[in-house]
Amino acid sequence: MDDMKQGQVGEVEQLGATTFRERLLAACRVARLPTGGSPNLGYLATSLGLSASEFSLRLNGKRERSFSRLQVQAIVRQLVEWGGLQTTAQAAELLTLGGVAPFSDDAWQQPPLNRLLNVAVSEEAAQTISPTADLPAFRRRLRELYRQASPYDARSPTQRDLAAAIGLADKELSRRLHGKGQLTTQDDHAIVRTLTEWGAIQSRYQAEELLQLLAAPNFSLADWASPPLDALTQLPIATAAKALNLPQPRNSFVGRTAAIVTCTRLLRQVRLLTIVGPGGVGKTRLAIELTRRQTADYPAGSCFVELAPLQSGEFLPQLVARSLGLREQPGQSIVATLHQHLAERLLLVLDNCEHLRAAVGELVADLLDACPNLTILATSRSDLGLAGEQLYPVAPLTLPTSQSSATASEAVSLLIQRVQAYQPNFSLEQQSEAVVELCRLLDGIPLAIELAAPWLQVLTAAQLTQRLRGQLSLLTAEHRYLPDRQRTMQASIAWSYDLLAATEQRLLRRLAIFSGGWDLEAAEVVCTDGELSSTAVLPSLRRLIAQSLVEVQISSNGETMRHRLLEPLREFALAELTAAGEQSSLAARHATLYLQLAEAAAPHLSGPQAERWQARLTNEYSNLRTALAWSVQHDDGATALRIGVAIWRLWIRQGTFSEGRYWLGAALQAAGEGAPQRAAALLTLGGLALAHGDGAAATVWLNESLALARKQGDRPTALAANLSLGDAAFYGGELDLAASYYQTALSLSQLLGEVQKRPVILEGLANLHIKQHGYDDGEAVALYHEAAALVREQGARPALVNLLTNLADAAYDQSDLASAAAHTAEALAIARQLGSKPQIGDLLTRQALIATAQGEAAAGAAAALASLDILQAVGQGRMVAFALMCLSYAVNGLNQPAAAARLSGAAAQRREASGLQLPPAKQSLYERIVASLQATLGMTRYLALTAEGAAMSEAEAVQYAQSLAPVLTAPLLVS
């Protein structure tokens, strides 16, 4: 084991823990969450479906019923996942202390238990583990690793391959592995190095596991720092942080061992690595594989951002933010939001940068300057032109230098593996010379090989090579300005295109009109006319898929299927579409289809089907953006306005306010003053501006919309404009004006018999009443209840979350903690069903506040810590300030005044920076916390500690809060 593991295991051993509870606390201190920091018992409670208080009572023997056998086993498995238990001896000991029998032999072989090291940490454990090599276990592990390896040919490696790699005869290695001979340390180390080179071993944890099974000495520090071992991650795979949006390829990764090793080393040395190369050479696939293997090196995880669908760099920051799960914050630029979120060590992958080189360069330079812990991996056909940029040129796959070296060629390996997907019995021996010649002709370019492989179902390798040679030379002669390899890439695509039937060619080039993919129904509507019937689409599409020209994407639930063109193919097909004179008519049909989709979705975006329709629009957003762009560029402002008015809720929920404002502004300009949708578009534009925190602009557009609606007799739009103007006046502090607007909106709602907006109006009136008169007369609460009853009837769950939150706040402010807890619990359950992370984080802070007020300070601390994890992840800076205050309240209740003071200082600083104003009840609570801390600590120490907290950045404050997790449970456990 390396120094880090020795230290962690040693820490557990030195504690001398003898009880289940003490051993559990010790393991929690050693454990690390994927997001950083140590877990507390609240995390374990959540994994068992128990409250933190119930977990604590059972742990301390204060419940008649303690933990069941399954619960103790679940605790052990979770601690293994977090790295708190790292050996079989530790896990077995905790089971024994919990009064549970050891796992079965089969269970020890299953994840995550199979990652445990087979070493002892105590004399008792040492007596149960043999000091000799466990060869049967090693052979079983070896067979598993063979299946995970992708070394040098199209088949999985065998023991014969391993023997050749380490310099032993196959029979001799077999003898030694079965205990009939002695494996030397040199043999042991060579085996681990070889499996690392093959990509089967990806972490030092796995390498050390094998050495332990062989009872072999560890590598030296110099060995670990040298290839190929220096490419291994430092942490167990079980503790690796998640990778956001990382595509999951449907076939295996072949070759590129040297590239993986080199790029891994470079990522640890530089902060900007750009993988460059011509189209189709495999840049994206290399980046995906590299990211998949690096997640353990980045505590905050990694995020993959595909730039190909983005037509302009104007919305690049918004695309990156959306990929990270961030929303735009009122009064804050999206770049500033990115700065806050990217403070932790994260790997950001920007794929296909070449068409946005200037915009990407500007954003990357800004992010690297502002976020010192950020590492960026980019793929592009050219460099980004930035200081400090490290380039890694991707060469084509290696080609055989001679007939005898064919099996060591990456290009041959890829071709054989892809052909075997269609013909499992295909082997190199059958057509060795012709296969080698074919790979040389294709220059080892992965996409060219992928496109050629399906044709070996109907042509021999020699026939295919002959047909390709003529087509390649023809296309190269026409495009001499392109680099050689790119000419070959274009030739391969053009050749595949020319071999298609006329109907298939027509469909392929027409599919290029879609951006970000399509489904079958969309293709049947957009791509058909007198020359291509709808009945011909499905069989033609099937043939395009079979020839690897179209990718298939199946949803996670297996219910829907989408298709897409690889970007180089789409570029080629677009050129063919333009040359055929079909682009304009196709783009018009495309815009019409997505206008219909947007308007079909609009009525459902606030009802019981809101999540399903929002997911569908999100899936099609690249096509919606393309439709908007085409409509604006071709003076069809009416279509653009209708799309924008239909999908405004999508922009609100995504937090992409500025993009929505841009499209609506451009559409209004293109449509002109007399557009029928102008009043509705101005209303939507004003609503987006209001959500974006730009009250002045919102008021201008909303007043214009109201005036136009009145002129046209459009009462529904007038109702909505009055409601939004009421919100603008309320947030602007003009309460009497807000009341006038709300009352007008309510009167119009009653006149029209409109019920969809009535709950929102009632909510606005309730908020206004609280601002003016408080809760004493019960009027505001009655309005909330009336609104909640309406949204329950309508099935509008997002609106119900807001109203339940308001009712919880009202109950809390009136000291009705039971009602506050009930409303919060219901709202939190709905928010979790909706997957609304900002609302989940916000409600957890309220849960923390209520639990602490009820005397459950440990439960309050657990909820506040959980809220911090979520709110920082989604960039909700204003809510983070409130969560820190709630945690300070809970920590003070757990008799940790120094920590509470630091958190109070951090909360006050964050609150001031974000402009967050506390309502009277929360302000009163804050003042009581301050008074309590000053009395306990004394003014001098209180001021010093709050100054320490105020000096922390948001990331530092959250990290400090997370570091307190093990301590926060202790007072309750010993009470």
Blueprint (SSEs and pairs):
Layout: H1 3-15, H2 20-30, H3 41-48, H4 52-59, H5 69-81, H6 88-97, H7 105-108, H8 123-126, H9 135-148, H10 159-166, H11 170-177, H12 185-197, H13 204-213, H14 221-224, E1 243-244, H15 257-267, E2 272-276, H16 283-294, E3 302-306, H17 316-323, H18 334-341, E4 346-351, H19 357-370, E5 374-380, E6 390-393, H20 410-420, H21 432-441, H22 446-452, H23 461-478, H24 484-498, H25 502-511, H26 520-526, H27 537-546, E7 551-554, E8 561-564, H28 567-579, H29 583-601, H30 610-619, H31 621-633, H32 637-646, H33 648-654, H34 657-671, H35 678-691, H36 695-712, H37 715-731, H38 735-752, H39 758-773, H40 779-794, H41 797-813, H42 817-834, H43 837-853, H44 857-873, H45 877-893, H46 897-914, H47 920-937, H48 939-950, H49 954-963, H50 965-973
Parallel strand pairs: 1-3, 2-5, 2-6, 3-4, 4-5
Antiparallel strand pairs: 7-8
